[in-house]
Amino acid sequence: MSEDKHYARVLTIAGSDSGGGAGIQADLKTFAALGCYGMSAITAITAQNTLGVRAIDPLPPAILAAQIDAVAEDIGVDAVKIGMLHNAEVVRVVADAIRRHRFERVVLDPVMVATSGDRLIAEDTLAVLVRELFPLATVITPNLDEAGWLLERTLADAAALEPAARDLQALGAHAVLLKGGHLPGEEVIDLLLDGTGIQRWQAARIASRNTHGTGCTLSSAIACGLALELPLREAIVLARSYVRAAMASGADVRVGSGHGPLNHGFAPRAAIKR
Fold first, then answer.
1. What is d(CA 99, CA 103) in angstroms, rounded to the nearest whole number?
2. Of 33, 31, 111, 113, which Cα lies nearest the Cα of 71?
3. Long-range contacts of 243-246 (CB under 8 A, 24+ apart)
4. Domain positions in the chain
5. What is the tens place of the pLDDT at every residue in 219-274?
6. CA-CA-CA-CA torsion sign (236, 241, 244, 245)
């Protein structure tokens, strides 16, 4: 008798965005759009919309651990995306779960600030995040502001990308995808440093006010690629292509009065069985 098929299974461990543009909501939309089966472990509830974050209420660490255990022990997990971890205790719970369940494909998006500028992580959490989760992640995906906070310096131009990526790798990360979208100019440069060297991607900037959840979406799409057993660089190519198309197809839509979401459902794929 042949073995039963299953979907490519991706777990997001992140905060809930009541506005639907980022966090758990963006992650699950991305998983579905790329043909994967999405599961979630919510770290915190946020009250937010396109204008900003009004409140953050972390869930009890025991509930977070129970969510991860429940899906891992029954459904199984092919890849994990980690987003907002509000405090040090939550970071430790997630690290313990990764080790306990032996998750091998882990994308860590060190979410520290919302598109609106609201801070999403406690100051004393950064050192714990680096110590506990960097060594467990397949790749980390900070933007320039997040990388600057981690390295305690300002990253002001494209020349700063490679040294910053090397310094982040020296902190324990196996691979670093440093996102250059916050740099000025008409082109966006992303840089990957992994075990085989440096890879740069350069593309024209897409003019849009709808950028809320871009980082969440990219890291989730990378996790989908890894769940589909793509090598890391191919997973990043898939993710960048998806994010750029989602941005372009939603650029002319108004959702709310601030930074709206991407069009995650512009061309959904059928669920992929393995």
1. 7
2. 31
3. 243/214, 243/217, 243/218, 244/203, 244/206, 246/33, 246/217
4. 9-250
5. 999 999 999 999 999 999 999 999 999 999 999 999 999 999 999 999 999 998 88
6. negative
Which residues have a catalytic role annotated? Answer: 179, 211, 213-216
For residues 13 and 68, what is the distance between their CA atoms, to the nearest angstrom? 8
Cα Dmax for the chain:
59
Instruction: State the pairing for strand pair 9-17/37-48.
Output: parallel
Tokens of 21: 């543009």
* b/e code 65-102 from CB counts within 10 Å (16+ = b): bebbeebbeeeebbbbbbbbbbbbebbbbbbebbeebe
Q: Return the CATH fold of 9-250.
A: UDP-N-acetylmuramoyl-L-alanine:D-glutamate ligase (3.40.1190)
